[in-house]
Amino acid sequence: MVTQVNLVTLGHVDHGKTTLVAAISGYAARHGRAKAKRYDEIDAAPIEKTSGIAFHVAHVLYETKVRHYDQVDCPGHVDNVKYLITGSAPADAAILVVSATDGLMPHTRIETMLASQVKIPNFIVYLNKCDQVEDEEMLMQVEEEIQSLLVKSGYPDHTSPIVRGSALKALNGEDSEFGIQSIQKMMDILDSDVPDPVPYHAVDSPHQRFKAAMYLQKKEEGGRTTPFTQGYKPQFFFKTTGITGAIQRLYNGGDIDRGPIETAMPGDFVNVEVALLNKVAMSVGIKFAMQEGGRSIGTGVITEIIE
Ligand SMILES: Nc1nc2c(ncn2[C@@H]2O[C@H](COP(=O)(O)OP(=O)(O)OP(=O)(O)O)[C@@H](O)[C@H]2O)c(=O)[nH]1
Ligand SMILES: [Mg+2]
User: Fold this and answer.
1) Most buried of the four, 125, 156, 223, 227, by CB within 10 Å?
2) Helix (H), strand (E) at residue 108
3) How far is CA 6 from the centre of its chain?
């Protein structure tokens, strides 16, 4: 059977994620290895619903000589966060798109930190819009910033390849270094640098305290209408087990280094430390719902067991 590898496309808004995915799809189609999906088809991603949370996600399928790939592209930052926290299949690798004209931006950092927390094992960087930057030093500086962000996020030094390119040139079929040759390079790197996914069998054991990444539903999504503060004690549901727990620490999502925050709003992405009233069977990667008065107000994934 051919191995399937799941990819997620991350990066700051407008840095060129959808353009890159359309360029990859077009490239694969020209080699008879995909049904081409156009930019506007990908951008009009349908709504998917997991754990009661709705977000837009496009799946673009293509093959290489050795594998099948399913690359996800979500429109905008919030849907990427929702996908990473609630998405059904964990990604085997992230394609991080960074525009060379802007460098690292807030969504780049937040999504990279979150991807590391949900244990995406591989990163490949596409340094986009290189057609707009002539200064080699500037390109090198952005690359260094990306590498240090990845190292800070827990990916060992220099293990995440960076491909320079222009997704727009590639999408337009331009046969140049930054054009389709950059897509070819991405494909080769995907095939050679991303190991075959190994089935992961989590062993649940009872624990009482954990860290998690959470998305808090907005009012329109059935969430709270008001913020909550550290010390808040909702119900936590793991599969069918429901138990009260206290949110002992609260952080801006993907931004733990800046220290705890006091309050969280509906619609926020947060990191939390939770102490449950009793031990519950859990493991890293397990998803859970947070409830209040019988309705779900948040969804999360365990990123670390504390005790
Ligand atoms: N000059 C240049 N423009 C590009 C390149 N890649 C993408 N763009 C343009 O950048 C803009 C944003 O590209 P998108 O692919 O929509 O960006 P995105 O990351 O999917 O944006 P969101 O989904 O809104 O987060 C579009 O106008 C693209 O045409 C590139 O390599 N060079
Ligand atoms: Mg897009």
Assistant:
1) 125
2) helix 106-117
3) 12
Nearest to 213 by CA among 278, 154, 284: 284
From 9, 12, 15, 18, the catalytic residue: 18
Strands 93-99 and 3-10, sheet pairing? parallel
Determine if the pTM surpasses 0.90.
Answer: yes
DSSP β-bridge partners for residue 249: 273
Which neighbouring-strand residues pair with 207? 280
Annotated catalytic residue, options 9, 12, 15, 17: 17
User: Of 162, 178, 160, 158, which Cα lies nearest the Cα of 170?
Assistant: 178
Of all protein residues, whose CA lies closest to atom 7 belonging to ligand 1? 16
Hey, what are 248's tokens? Answer: 């002992």
Please identify every residue whose CB atom is under 5 Å from ligand 2, which is an ion: 17-18, 75
Say which residue the tokens 């995406």 belong to: 120
The per-residue pLDDT for range 32-69, each reduced to its tens digit, is: 898 889 999 999 988 988 777 889 999 999 999 899 99
Whose C-alpha lies nearest to ligand 1, atom 32?
A: 129
Length of the chain: 307
Distance CA 162, CA 125 (A): 5
- For the question of residue 14 being annotated catalytic, the response is yes
pLDDT in tens, 87-101: 877 899 999 999 999
Residues 6+ apart with CB under 8 A from 230: 247, 248, 249, 250, 260, 262
3-193 is classed in which CATH architecture?
A: 3-Layer(aba) Sandwich (3.40)
- Domain positions in the chain are 3-193, 205-305
205-305, CATH topology level: Elongation Factor Tu (Ef-tu); domain 3 (2.40.30)
Encoded amino acid at 288, one letter: F
